[in-house]
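Chain and backbone:
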Amino acid sequence: MPDPADSAAVAAAERAPEHVQSLTRGLAVIRAFGADTPELTLSEVARASGLTRAAARRFLLTLVDIGYVRTDGRVFALSPRVLELGYAYLSGLSLPEVATPHLERLVAEVRESASVAVLDDADVVYVARVATGRIMRVAISIGTRFPAHATSMGRVLLAWRADLPERLARADLRPLTGRTITSPAGLAEELARVREQGWALVDQELEEGLRSIAAPVRDRAGTVVAAVNLSTHASRTSVAAARRDLLPPLLATAARVEADLRATRAAGPATAL
């Protein structure tokens, strides 16, 4: 089903005189597909995108014509060409290139998986990752999205947002485990703690058995533009051990990424995150 926040954003955008409604609807068709819905019928695409069957059919057949969707005549699926859209973003983003060597060094030191993510509305989006092994039921790759409220990187990225009150007011704080913070007041209190201590630790709120700890990455102006984290299994690393053994090298890595990112941006044209 369409995300209510997405629907509200689309409705607001469509009121703008420069808004191209057909582009918005075409992207809605692409976003109907996902990890849990890799193949969809016309009716399913229409339902997920909020379009009529006739409109969904026109957009799907157009996407088939230009190579972004494939079909056997009944079922539709995205084609590998859709990756070009993500690569177009990443190719202009210096962060993954800058961060990856530091993640590799961190992983070699602590033997846990490390990632970098940015904030996209209510989600974190992974832009760099070095894994030691699969510790989650859901595989993580570049472009993977998780709800920000239940992740350590998401809390770091939310904690310093100037528009945090508005975000909390409209947030869908759905429970992902029995430990997930689901009240705006509770999350606001936790984010205040993150700001005070300068890092976030999430204990089995995204997935049972998963602990993660994250630190912010700031740009030259001091704005938090990304987050770096370490993920570990609860059976292997206690909360106290994560603070003692993982936090210091994580903070050092975040500082090195910041330094290199600032140097890269200073040496060439600024690139928006």
User: Anything to note?
Assistant: The domain at 92-267 is CATH 3.30.450.40 (Beta-Lactamase). The radius of gyration is 20 Å. Confidence is low (pLDDT under 50) at residues 268-273.
